[in-house]
Amino acid sequence: MVSTLAADRVGRAWAVLADVLDPEVPALSVCDLGIVRDVVEQDEALEIVLTPTYSGCPATEAIERSVLDTIAAAGLGPARVRLQRAPAWTTDWISEDGRRKLREYGIAPPAHIEPGAAVPIRLVPRRIAPVACPRCGSTHTERLSAFGSTACKSLFRCLDCREPFEHFKPI
Amino acid sequence: MQASIRLQRDERQQYLLRIGDTCLIQAQRLSEWTGHAPVLEEDIALANMALDLLGQARAVLTLAGSAQGLSEDQLAFLREERDYFNPTLVELPNGEGRPGDFALTVLRNAFVSTFLQLLWQRLQASSDEELAAIAAKAVKEARYHVEHAADWVVRLGDGTEESRRRMQAALDKLWPYVAELFEADAVDEAAADAGLGPRWAELREPWLAQMQALLQAATLQPPAVSSFRSTGRQGVHSEHMGYILAEMQHLQRAYPGGAW
Fold this sequence. Notes:
The complex is a heterodimer of chains A (171) and B (260). Helices cover 26% and strands 21% of the residues of chain A. Chain A has helices at 2-17, 30-33, 60-73, 96-105, and strands spanning 36-42, 45-50, 79-83, 107-108, 141-145, 153-158, 164-168. Chain A is elongated and about 55 Å long. Chains A and B meet through loops of A and helix 2, helix 6 and helix 9 of B. Chain B: This is 1,2-phenylacetyl-CoA epoxidase subunit PaaC. Chain B: It holds the Pfam family PaaA_PaaC.
């Protein structure tokens, strides 16, 4: 009976967390992003394990707060957040659903990273894997800058429809 | 005035502070470009790299202070100059005036990001689990920094007469400060013995190999090796350090504990 209740509380926590949006990419929930690594019940409290995306991501603290506010608003009792650095977050943890939402929002989703394949650093000129334009789907695109409006994105331009767009960069 | 904290010299802490302070001061110098870079994309790129470095600094300072009960903020804002252990290279101004020289900035980025990438790679195997976890994250970020800096060094070095002249001048200025990075001492020895991290001297060979390839592609020649040694890693800094600290610390000193 107790374990059923616990499972129910954890399950409800996962359900409400699916509505907590990333403040910098509000198309995605923290679950789509893959930064919620675990939810466990410990000493009467819910412990939510989060893995930050980037070392300097300024949204980390805001995300912690909205996670705790959401759990409290759902009446799920005392909760705390634990930050877990290892294993390091990777864009491979973004769900398929999340990738679709990114594309619909106008951000090209990251390609999957080959396991263990360290890409060698090359001096210019360098070819990077083609990134499809989220508006017209063309892969005839070019990178304007590896850095964008937030730590997780780079800047691209479509050479067919001429629209600039952002790319969630694989890391 | 909020009183300064004083550190009891401790080899483990000093090893960690060398890493954290390198990231912190490099972040501070990069952030001076915010709003002043030659084009918008560069403004964003330099600010993004500063942010990554600041995040890495926060994590390492938190770890460095934990044994003595000191927070990242106390370590960042309340130390005196002699208790900062970054190599002198990162505290040198970006160039004359503000925001300084873009050539010198991108060349230093190449030096520092390549060094940090090699260091983070090794620190992933640290006996300290937290440091290993910080490194596993940071090494992925460093890759983008290396790529960005290397692109510019080649583009400007192998560029116009004027861009090449300025890159070469930056190289002549910065090169003498590189030797300090790889000086062996008791702090590094203790870290290596404890499995905390590598002797920085061990990174010299791979760093030089990468830089030689880069400088060659950029058609730049490093100046002859000199006997000059900077000493920032020992806490003995150049005349520029005090000015950075004054700028970094003045809000916390004027409004102790202030937050927003």
